[in-house]
């Protein structure tokens, strides 16, 4: 795909003015970015005979750079804190939940079903089933939609979903040869067998196997994929750095204004109380320009500053049938409406999930791009975001890859990620989906909009998109 895109751009099928227009709108004026969406009289997406499912509340621990204040904890500690924060914020009785689902990516082997361990630690009834899902960066999206499915099927009325990632302490394995030797030692019955096995160990066997943020099918790191994708769509280094500055600036403004109300304070055992994200760094374009390429060296455009950083954090949301929520006295924040999962080539289209998912979910909901008041896309890399925006704004891409007559259309930047995103707030892989959905619900309330759209890419060439509808105020 990359070569086809480059050839098309070189041949003039995609005009330079198109790329320039999208590039210049990657940063809007402050007034535009802070403009409130006016409430519109639109139809509700409620359907006769279909159960309304609502987001009652969403919380998250502060998202922290890995290796900082959370460094000595374990994943279930963060998940437990998020669950306790949800209980505290909602006043939910601990036995009033039918099911608990958590998403995570790099699992701690001691707590492989982190949903169950965190739930027990948070004091939920041991009668409540819990399971853990994994779908790369859309793991908590999968947790939420699994909750929606359980409620829609009549199995449950109240489900807690969430996600957690702990990059400060990832599992590091012995080499395969060493593992085989150690397993054999465990089975050895005589001293001679044990000595023979110990004598077979070589220095090379002691080399550890480190986890990598790379595709198993292609052996390529996600950063390399992002760099190639940016090059394929003609995304410049300046565009990426501008978008990263935008993300950090908006996140800082949102944090200072108290808009990130989903963040709960967390007393870290033996350390201080943490009450806000610590990865927000507002830099100048001059400072950004000093960084060298992080993946494709020396001429790549993806750097540490225009990429999301390794993050520790957890999130949790309370999802209910509308009937149950109202019966318990809750005022829901939003309706969870249509959603889709998509999948494509994990090499050249690894990070294009939003481009594929957005038109499909809009079609399911019977909406157009102009109907959406709030957009929240996962920012894995600035280059990935800009590539998606350019793909969505390309007639050629829409016709060639999406089977459409014309382009999807790119989200207006005055509606897009206005409180920062994963580049600035952080990206704990398994927890980001809940942050996105909760942010859409809060922005719809603050800005007076009716419809929001969440979209995210994920490893394996997969993606997710969901439409959220504001609950009547």
TrEMBL record:
The keyword Acyltransferase applies. Its EC number is 2.3.1.155, 2.3.1.16. Its main location: endoplasmic reticulum. Keywords: Acetylation, Acyltransferase, Endoplasmic reticulum, Fatty acid metabolism, Lipid metabolism, Membrane, Mitochondrion, Mitochondrion inner membrane, Mitochondrion outer membrane, Transferase, Transit peptide. GO terms for biological process: fatty acid beta-oxidation. GO terms for cellular component: endoplasmic reticulum; mitochondrial fatty acid beta-oxidation multienzyme complex; mitochondrial inner membrane; mitochondrial outer membrane. It comes from the Eukaryota. The keyword tRNA-binding does not apply. Pathway: Lipid metabolism; fatty acid beta-oxidation. Residues 53-323 form the Thiolase N-terminal domain. It is an enzyme of class 2 (transferase). Residues 330-469 form the Thiolase C-terminal domain. SUPFAM superfamilies: Thiolase-like (SSF53901). Belongs to the thiolase-like superfamily. Thiolase family. Mitochondrial trifunctional enzyme catalyzes the last three of the four reactions of the mitochondrial beta-oxidation pathway. The mitochondrial beta-oxidation pathway is the major energy-producing process in tissues and is performed through four consecutive reactions breaking down fatty acids into acetyl-CoA. Among the enzymes involved in this pathway, the trifunctional enzyme exhibits specificity for long-chain fatty acids. Heterotetramer of 2 alpha/HADHA and 2 beta/HADHB subunits; forms the mitochondrial trifunctional enzyme. Also purified as higher order heterooligomers including a 4 alpha/HADHA and 4 beta/HADHB heterooligomer which physiological significance remains unclear. The mitochondrial trifunctional enzyme interacts with MTLN. Interacts with RSAD2/viperin. This is Trifunctional enzyme subunit beta, mitochondrial.
């Amino acid at each position: 795909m990359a070569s086809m895109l480059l050839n098309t751009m070189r041949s003039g099928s995609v005009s330079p003015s198109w790329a320039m227009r999208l590039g210049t709108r990657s940063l809007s004026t402050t007034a535009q970015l802070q403009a409130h969406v006016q409430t519109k009289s639109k139809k509700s997406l409620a359907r006769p005979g279909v159960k309304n499912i609502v987001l009652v509340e969403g919380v998250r621990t502060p998202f922290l750079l890995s290796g900082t204040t959370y460094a000595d904890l374990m994943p279930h500690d963060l998940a437990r804190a998020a669950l306790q924060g949800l209980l505290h914020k909602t006043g939910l009785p601990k036995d009033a939940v039918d099911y608990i689902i958590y998403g995570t990516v790099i699992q701690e082997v001691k707590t492989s079903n982190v949903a169950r361990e965190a739930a027990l630690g948070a004091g939920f009834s041991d009668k409540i089933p819990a399971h853990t899902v994994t779908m790369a960066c859309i793991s908590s999206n999968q947790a939420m939609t699994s909750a929606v499915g359980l409620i829609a099927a009549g199995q449950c009325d109240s489900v807690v979903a969430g996600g957690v990632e702990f990059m400060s302490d990832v599992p590091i394995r012995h080499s395969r040869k060493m593992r085989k030797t150690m397993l054999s030692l465990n089975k050895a019955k005589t001293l001679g067998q044990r000595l023979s096995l110990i004598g077979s160990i070589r220095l090379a066997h002691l080399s550890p196997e480190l986890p990598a943020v790379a595709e198993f099918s292609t052996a390529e790191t996600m950063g390399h994929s992002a760099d190639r994708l940016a090059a394929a769509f003609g995304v410049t280094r300046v565009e990426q750095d501008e978008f990263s500055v935008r993300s950090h600036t908006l996140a800082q403004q949102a944090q200072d204004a108290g808009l990130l109300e989903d963040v709960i304070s967390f007393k870290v055992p033996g350390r201080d109380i943490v009450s806000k994200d610590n990865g927000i760094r507002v830099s100048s374009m001059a400072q950004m320009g000093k960084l060298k390429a992080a993946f494709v060296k020396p001429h790549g455009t993806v750097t540490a500053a225009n990429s999301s950083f390794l993050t520790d954090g957890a999130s949790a949301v309370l999802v209910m049938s509308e009937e149950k929520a109202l019966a318990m006295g809750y005022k829901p924040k939003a309706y969870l409406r249509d959603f889709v999962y998509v999948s494509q080539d994990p090499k050249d289209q690894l990070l294009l999930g939003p481009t594929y998912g957005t038109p499909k979910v809009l079609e399911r909901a019977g909406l157009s791009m102009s109907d959406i008041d709030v957009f929240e896309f996962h920012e894995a890399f600035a280059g990935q975001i800009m590539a998606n925006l350019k793909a969505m704004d390309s007639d050629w891409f829409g016709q060639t890859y999406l089977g459409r007559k014309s382009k999807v259309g790119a989200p207006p930047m005055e509606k897009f990620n206005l409180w920062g995103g994963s580049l600035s707030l952080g990206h704990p892989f398994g927890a980001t989906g809940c942050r996105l959905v909760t942010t859409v619900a809060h922005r719809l309330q603050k800005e007076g909009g009716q419809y929001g759209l969440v979209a995210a890419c994920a490893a394996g060439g997969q993606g997710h998109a969901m439409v959220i509808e504001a609950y009547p105020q």
